[in-house]
Amino acid sequence: MYRSVPLVPSMIEIGGFHVAPPKKLPKDLQDYLDNASEGVIYFSLGSNLKKKRDMLLRVFSKLKEKVLWKWEDDILPGQPPNVKLGKWFPQQDILAHPNVKVFITHGGLLSTTETIYHGVPILAIPVFADQHDNAANAVKNGYALSLAYHDPNFSEENLLHLLKELLYNPTYRDNVKQRSKLFHDRPQKPMDAAVYWVEYVVRNRGASHLKVAGVGMPWYKYHLVDVIAFLAGVTMSTVLLLCLGIRWLLCRRNPSDKKNKPKKN
């Protein structure tokens, strides 16, 4: 999904196997999204941003787009009229709606996969673990912008700037649509591939013929410890011989140094 990497025969990529075709939304959500003529921002970070909640509400109040925010409360103090809260939302089905313009996410792998599948630009707010790497890859591929939760530049002004850039610069949507097209263009659906290869391994009693030689190697060979030790030994021996050779040449070049040295009484 992010970069091309070499895979051994016993490793099969099934990224996106959990993504299902969109289902019909509940009527209230369907009407909310259908009537969002200016578009919708889907925001799913839960209580991770509790300390910066008021700042986010101020940012959303300055936008003309509607905001769907997954939150544990039914209403918030200072909640602007364009923000709709919900304790749970069918995320994949919402991302599939054409009026969703931006997805604000922490950058987890599954959420990132879903937004690529449905072709929605990302504002990533990574907090920990792999989220930072996922966000960086999304930014590199041109369909996201990122502002880490603990970044000292995390401010109302910067958040508003990033959101407007994603909303009104079509480059990000074009890039994620292209990524979505590549994601869908595969000979087999990920879940079908997973089922096939599980059955293949069962049919062939573990499919030992697909295992690479590294599986049975001793740890010191697998990690090339023997090769590294040999090269280190050759290098150290070469340096030692070179030092001894230089010392011998210097002594041979000045044989009278010791003879001419004045004697002490």
TrEMBL record:
Localization: Membrane
Catalytic activity line of the entry: glucuronate acceptor + UDP-alpha-D-glucuronate = acceptor beta-D-glucuronoside + UDP + H(+)
GO cellular component: membrane
Keywords associated with the record: Glycosyltransferase, Membrane, Transferase, Transmembrane, Transmembrane helix
Molecular function GO labels: glucuronosyltransferase activity
EC numbers on record: 2.4.1.17
SUPFAM superfamilies recorded: UDP-Glycosyltransferase/glycogen phosphorylase (SSF53756)
Membrane topology: Single-pass membrane protein
Membrane spanning stretches: 227-250
Similarity remark: Belongs to the UDP-glycosyltransferase family.
Protein name: UDP-glucuronosyltransferase
